[in-house]
């Protein structure tokens, strides 16, 4: 039996199943200062090794998966993961975006580029 035929036969008779876990969009708070936008999200039961934050094509996405220990602690199996995306506004220096996770709270810092920051205009005397 050739490989092509085996693949075709398998696809027709038993399509491969893709495991996809349910996810919810966690509530977030967004704060703006002169220096940055700060996104704060509660992700209970998520640890650093089960969290991904990425910026791609002007979109910020974070995804977190709860630990089995967190599920046992809450007495529920199959709790949904966390997933949320935002469009990164213009004027954000995407190369300097940083994130930290402490006690289940994710903080994503989106620094403004120099052109958006307020600046003092020096006045010359003539």
TrEMBL record:
The chain positions of domain SHSP read: 19-126
What InterPro entries does the database record attribute to this sequence?
A: A-crystallin/Hsp20_dom, HSP20-like_chaperone, Small_HSP
Q: Where is the composition biased (Basic and acidic residues)?
A: 1-19
Endpoints of the signal sequence: none
Pfam families referenced in this protein's UniProt entry, alphabetically: HSP20
Residue span of region Disordered: 1-21
Q: Which CDD domains match?
A: ACD_sHsps-like (cd06464)
Return the similarity comment. Answer: Belongs to the small heat shock protein (HSP20) family.
Q: What is this protein called?
A: Hsp20/alpha crystallin family protein
Q: Which organism is it from?
A: Sorangium atrum
């Amino acid at each position: 039996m050739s490989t092509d035929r085996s693949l075709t036969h398998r696809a027709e008779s038993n399509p491969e199943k893709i495991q996809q876990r349910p996810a919810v969009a966690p509530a977030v708070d967004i704060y703006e200062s002169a220096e940055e936008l700060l996104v704060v999200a509660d992700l209970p039961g998520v640890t650093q090794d089960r969290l991904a934050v990425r910026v791609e094509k002007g979109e910020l996405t974070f995804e977190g998966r709860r630990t089995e220990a967190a599920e046992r602690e809450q007495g529920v199996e199959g709790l949904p993961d966390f997933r949320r995306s935002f469009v990164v506004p213009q004027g954000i220096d995407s190369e300097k975006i940083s994130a930290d996770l402490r006690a289940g709270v994710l903080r994503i810092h989106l620094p403004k580029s120099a052109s958006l920051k307020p600046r003092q205009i020096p006045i010359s005397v003539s």
